[in-house]
Structures
1.
Amino acid sequence: MVKMLRIISVFCVCLFAAASAVPANLILRKLDPALRYQHERDSIGQYHLVDTWMTLSDLAEVARYNPVTDNVYHLFTRENPTVSQPMYVNSAGLLQGSNYSNGRRTIVIIHGWRDGPISDSVVALIPAFLAAEDLNVFVVDWTAASNSINYPAVLSNTITSGLAVGQFINWVNQVTGSNAVQYHIVGHGLGGHQAGIAARNVNGEVAYVTGLDPSLVGWINHSDRFGPDDGSYTEVIHTNCGVNGYIADLAQVDFYPNGGESMPGCDSHACDHSRSYFYFAESITSGGFTGRQCVNYLAAVLQTCNVLPGTLQMGGLRPKFGSSGVYLVWTNASPPFSMD
């Protein structure tokens, strides 16, 4: 009996020691191993020191967000260009009683971190799209997740929201008879990566996917980042690469206006980051912005694209099927930004 008690006592001591050695907040995922703490600017221009590693405590916040029920999809058309018709997945009555038409192409706009459905990016894009063509425009409101200061949780929820957006599109198509070919998905910042995630989860191949300065922090080694095969035609516009935006090429076609980092007329990185959607909005209505083909993205960043003769229009309303490569674009410091 004494021997047994000694064995139990030793076992308990070892168990306590092992438990004490386990960190209180386990590291679950290291997306940027060399740069754990980084300053990241949100979509309203504020800097935050963020921990890019996912820890055990982050899971509690992640679990509180259910994109299937929390996301709202605001429909705008030429019949209601300024006041949205809110939609929810599986609410067929709302969809069937709305101004949605399966005879139109459909645009899906996804905002970024600590942004929302009335953000500058959304306000710039909706009127540009509706002025250019009679369209259905859905604005994805995922503020239930994007408003948090907890960057690892928001980054994780970017992925689950993207999956939910893809499911919403599948549901709309099932109810209305629309199909993936009619869709153009656009996202800014974190929403840029989410646009790719959403598109790759749609049944069928989405015609056009645009990333507007997709985020850098947390995405360097992330397998779910925007990819060239997320749609039939994919395009990224880099305006603050290496700071707020992803530096390397991500899509079939990547444009680097003014080298991709500092934009003429801007005096802050927030301004640079926002230029992506202002340039894109202008391209929808004007069709301007001729890009010069570069050997690779480093040549675009260094603004040394004087070898290849190819040119391509940046942005625009329609996908440029079959196009590929990296392009350098020059812009004006104020509207109209296009030099064409």
Note: Confidence is low (pLDDT under 50) at residues 1-22.
2.
Amino acid sequence: MTADTVTDVFEEHRPVLTGVAYRMLGRVADAEDVVQEAWLRWSAETRDDVREPRAYLVRVTTRLAIDRLRHVQARREAYVGPWLPEPVVTHFGATVPDTAEHATLADSVSLAVLVVLESLSPLERAVFVLREAFGFPYAEIAATLDRSESAVRQLAGRARRHVEEGRPRFDVDPAERRDVTERFLAAASGGDLDALLSLLAPDVRLVGDSGGKAKAPLRVVQSADKVGRFLFSVAKQPIAQSEFRFLELNGGPALLVLSGGVPDAVFQLDVVDGLVQCVYIVRNPDKIAALAP
């Protein structure tokens, strides 16, 4: 391959590589570092011996992501308060017209699923991401991980069962999630505690991620009464030059709160049967700075 061809081939597959790395690591900077390292390895040789560039690049990226994940897991153990993935802007609704494919992509990158993936081993997570999110054949995953196909199928089964047990059952209608999110904002900002409580499931959970760099609960808040009263008290504390924007993050509607044009918080809701099952709040400035308009 010529230098231009090497670059063109890599750029063609960059979206898939970034998607794999982000789902493996849950943080944009870590994913970008992994993809950059994959590029350095890819561009170091002429690559005339590579018959299937996509498979080769995914293999390199996945292995690098596994190594990176093993290192960052220790770092996350010292994280202040609950850890949530870094929210990323998605546009599945505009780029993926097929409903089934949209649902698969959105689900695989949702905050709820990424949180569950944190409890998997690096190999289980890699198998789940490659199989469930991107549909790679078991034989190709086995070659990527240097494992037998039967071992990969066992890893896939364990990972799938664990994820199914840990994630909530989503409403598939984005319009309903958006409607509930809008009513949630109206109730909270309007000081209507009864309206807010009516939107919450009895066992609703609130997970706040600040990394110790902003105000947020250091433990998960659970039950409609506790979550509702916490949100009600937060809403009574004014934010300077506040502005609210709706956008699609991690495959679903989310609310971005700006203070003086700077991202202050991200709210996203898991909605089941019209009720909020979980409230995610990301306030760590390192994770939301990139969402600035």
Note: The first helix runs from residue 3 to 25.
3.
Amino acid sequence: MAVVGLDLTVGRGEVVSILGPNGAGKTTSVRMLTGLLVPTSGEASVGGYDVARHRRRAALACGVSLGGDSGLYPRLSAAQNLTFFGLMYGLRGRSLDRRVRELLSLVDLGDRAGDLVGTYSRGMKQRVHLARALLHDPPVLILDEPSAGLDPQSARSMRALVRKLATDGRSVLLTTHDMREAEDLSNLVVLMKGGAVHAEATPAQLRVRAAERLGHTVEIVWNDDVPAPDCRSCPGLLDVAHDNGVTRLRVRSGAEAVRWAFDRFGAQAANVSVSSPSLEEVFLERAVRESSS
């Protein structure tokens, strides 16, 4: 997949997410930044080092986690895996032992350090991959689908760890299919399709722009003794749905609809909230628009 016109900067302490369907160019972008592919044109640098002219320095400036079952030795323990890769980075002796212990504790595997990686769950292997990426304490992290295949609890733990690493001052670039992950972590989201960038903004900006087309959602939770009333007179109404004491209105103006709800129903409503479209809705709506154009 050729990548055309990708222009982004990941600052210190920032998380930038690249989103897109399969074949969008996400993996190709990561491979160029990590030195696995050499760009045929344009420029790319990691930690200030050009990935084509200074490949070794650029590679050492970043930690890479590609996840999956490859890249680790299943017949070695987690500690032995990290020790092996630490030796390749030039770490030795007590400093290496200390670093391995620190990282296994960081990824919450300290009590399983001596277990063979082949006995680990998918989530545990993902954490070993991340620990491996951090061995040489790089300023940049490149994470390809860090929570792919994880159960909800493991995915939440992974997101919390990535957030901490960024808070500690690292620059984090991640690719993901998980819209919640991107929305939860990212300072900037890049939407790619066909090797090109189709949108680049903060999650909040993408949601606000989508709200101009899709509208806002106003959710009204009624008191227990109040049947869901007729809301078809709500100004700017696009759609309405009632479900178990909750009414959801899709409207042009969230603020105007909230004022209308309070004026009309007052104390009948236990709670009224308004939200713009989720990042997942943004992504799907954009895909539908592009497929029909």
Note: The mean pLDDT is 88.
